[in-house]
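writing this on my phone so excuse typos. first protein, seq and then structure
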Amino acid sequence: MFPNFIGGQWHAGADATDNVNPSDTRDVVGVYARASAAEATDAIAAAHHALANCQAMTPQARSDALDAVGSEILARKNELADLLAREEGKALPDAQGEVVRAGQIFKFFAGEALRVAGELLASTRPGMTVEITREPVGVVSIITPWNFPIAIPAWKIAPALAYGNAVVFKPAELVPGSAWALAEIISRAGFPPGAFNLVMGRGRDIGDVLLSDPRVSAITFTGSEGTGRKVAQAAIGRAGAMAKFQLEMGGKNPLVVLDDADLQTAVNCAINGAYYATGQRCTASSRLIVTNGIHDRFVAAMRDKLATLPVGDARAAGTVIGPVVDAKQRQQDIDFIALGAREGGQLVVGGEALEVVDGKPGYYLRPALFTATTNDMRINQEEIFGPVACVIRAADADHALAIANDTRFGLSAGVVTTSLKHAAHFKRHLQAGMVMVNAPTAGVDPHVPFGGRKSSSHGPREQGRHAVEFYTTTKTSYVQP
């Protein structure tokens, strides 16, 4: 059994769960411990006790430890990608890209640990100076989703440790393997005991502890909108001091295709953005907003391309679309496909559940494309989180922009056009945290800020140098000689 990691020691826990391969449900990846509420409390206590040692580490020591983590991830990228694809169902090339990104993130924050800046200002009062410095925020609860089981933990854990905090990390129960492998690497990197803690298990068992314990100073969460709101309420409403919180809660991202777009570029962006990683990305372009002049050619090209995409075992050569992560998620996708048909959408390709592929029982689903949809349909307003995309016809560029912004989400958005005028206009007016021109809506470099607006995100941006805003607190000191 793969144990939890608390206070620098491995703890088996009283309960465990099987980690099942969604490409072949006969295959058990491993048996992973489930933490109890008491063990989660112990992890918070260990992190709280370690704070002084975390903050006593020199910037160089933190940098060296983070760099060692990044180097080992990159050196083991094939092994870790195979594990990721096996437990989550992401096609192996996508899994390899995610692992590399995780390694790069740790190396980036190894540099950032040496670049924590302050300010020295003259006061308005004679002879006095003002120092503005940054300090660690304290114990950080990190709660991550199943769709990026090593990259999202990396972009939360690395900055937390870089800036001198202590961490209690709870990964999604569906994907403990990648989290455990990352934790094992971190456990040997040189951080003080208790600086990093791993508690695996069910949110209903340990989630409240990670949110409500007054020793937790900050909570960073990526997951569903509904759970994100509960995190916010818990952080604000607890009896002790309120916790700082950061939320990433999904999207209903538009990809606008204008009449002047290069058709092949538009199809490539839509296929990659909507269907790669089995559509299980918060940045997936699930709304394809296409203007009249190119609509029919775009739909025909998409239909032809989707019919050729190989669906199969995530680790098999040539697989583009792996399985959905589990039975519950696939049923949600199937329910949305049925809903789309009831709402009047036309399913032009895909949408069939496949129980067995190449002799392997798994949670397979052919990528689905709807046409004749309108933006007010539920399939265009609610996050499906699967290989399903809907085409919405727009009269012109202005109409397309209005449709794109007509959503409660605002994470990522894209436009495909050969016009510099249109590109500039859409970059300025799309209501999203990230805008892509002639590129898929999914995919952000590890050194730039990630996040959205509206109901997609709350709090400072993740990744890049902007992460310092969440993982540190600012102190202003006045000095009179």
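second protein below, same order as before
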Amino acid sequence: MWILSAPRPLGPDALPAHQADLTNGALMYNIGGCLNCHKPDPANASAAADLPSGGAPLKTPIGIFFPPNLTPDLETGIGKWSELDFLNALERGLSPAGSHAIPAFPYTSYALMRREDILDIRGHLMTLAPVKSEARPADIPLAFILRRGVGLWNHLGLSDAKWQPDTQQTASWNRGAYLVNGPGHCAQCHTPRTLLMTLDETRAFAGAPSLEGSGNVPSLRGLIERGRYKDAKDLISAMQFGEMLGYDKLSSGGMGAVQTNLSKLPEGDLQAIADYLVSLK
């Protein structure tokens, strides 16, 4: 069992020959909501609120995590991480030292992404101002044993398969499907889980109990049929403007930060996301 739970890192041959596209990296950073979870610790008075220096508590069913510093600080951030280190973090949920991340970090969705897009995110992060922010250990019982056990869980919850386009759908629909399922990792909150805490793909996007322990995350299916939105254009306006234009609940709770990120996307990508979501019946 110990052998089966061992880390399975990617090797150097997994790295594509790629020059980081910083514009795309910023877009992927926003759709991924990196700042939402890696926001600064409120106690770190020197940390800028718009930089992902980490440390703010993240409540989960198994305890409290303190997401780490994503700025390029050499001592406390990712400044010394190689491209392969970053790829292993997002595709395999592994730290540079080889320890397993708990799947509160949505690497099972990021693993679907094109590697070029992952490296573009790294390129964007490396342009940010470095912030010194020491990592805080997670407040969970038996953390070391749990992290090693994630290696076993990965055999069920982590796929090696990359997202593939549906040749029966339009280019816009496929773009939306990619953004929602990969970098957007929407399924992590909007899809219910099995007893083993893997995503229940038979009920994808059908709504789920909140991972923070109270309330429910709504279904993304039948948004038009249920009267949530009039049409795809109405959904695009909601993603752009949220409650500022009367789209109640879209900017409340955890969706507030998500809607803020969505509002930064080009209209073509919002159209693609809307095309995909309204197709979920």
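The chain has two domains: 12-157, 171-278. thats all i got for now
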